[in-house]
């Protein structure tokens, strides 16, 4: 199995392993009969040869090298059709044990969730959909293009819909629109995390404002959490909780300041204009200002590039400075926290 972030590709094929060097991929593997090969895109060939079975997968959309993946072993492929007519291939390792039922209950909703995301942020950007529940308990999930990979441990406590939402949101934020430099990782993780808040809101498990209030109050002003900058976290803390949680708070602050109509127009424009390209935080800031007609330098500088907990003000999008003692915990919080234990 090959899957990893920020670097993995050079371990299994010659590559310039950086998100700016995208390519289309044909991945062809010969394995012993009775063994399955899973990769990105559409299965174009599954054919017996003298030495075994050849599996060939093709993805026709630009793909960052770290988003190409390979899984070889004993798997069951479940094929269906998404609401938009695209092929869905969901894959489950044979030895999932107690995780099997909850894994299927989660991953089989891939097409539905992509349809929901498409209504929020624009059409699904790729040619195929799906997910893979691996045999190995990696301890993380990853948004490998068209077919995210999940660890079986992610489903031992039951269905994990927030994790599925997170990794599928990455198909837009991270996969289609990729970072120009790794320091811009907020454009991936903050956005995928905020998609979970939107799912919570739509499913009646807590509004995005309620999730914001609880998350904000969960980290006291002196917590080291506020010392890691989502806009430039550094190599050692590239996947720090701040990139996810403060990253999502940043987007909610933006939504609060510009309003829902402008906010979702910003997201749809971003996923359209930067489709299959690479982007920076500065470009997102410029788009947000251009679309909303508001000056947003203070908001982004405060939330992404200034240490310390942002204070309540009209410019920062914080409506109040709630104490954790008087903030009700939304139903979704425990599920979101569980998803973030393994989300990449």
Largest sheet, order of strands side by side? Answer: 6-7-8-9
**What is the structural class?**
alpha/beta
Number of helices: 10
The low-pLDDT segments are none
Fold-level CATH name of the largest domain:
Zincin-like
- Which band does the percent of strand residues land in? 15-25%
Q: What is the β-strand count? A: 11
CATH architecture designation of the largest domain:
2-Layer Sandwich
Largest sheet: 4 strands, mixed
**Which bin fits the share of residues in helices?**
25-40%
Features:
single chain; 344 residues; alpha/beta; Zincin-like; 2 domains; four-stranded mixed β-sheet; three-stranded antiparallel β-sheet; 34% helix; globular
Architecture overview:
With about 350 residues, this protein is of the alpha/beta class. It has two domains: about 10-170, 2-Layer Sandwich (Zincin-like); about 180-340, Neutral Protease Domain 2 (Neutral Protease, domain 2, Orthogonal Bundle). Helix content is about 35%, strand content about 15%. The chain has ten helices and eleven strands. It has helices at about 100-105, 110-120, 160-170, 185-200, 210-220, 240-260, 260-275, 280-290, 295-305, 335-340; strands at about 25-30, 35-40, 40-50, 50-65, 70-75, 75-80, 85-95, 130-135, 150, 180, 280. It has a four-stranded mixed sheet, with helices on one face. β6 (about 75-80) and β7 form a beta hairpin. The longest helix has 18 residues, at about 240-260. It is globular and about 70 Å long. The mean pLDDT is about 95.
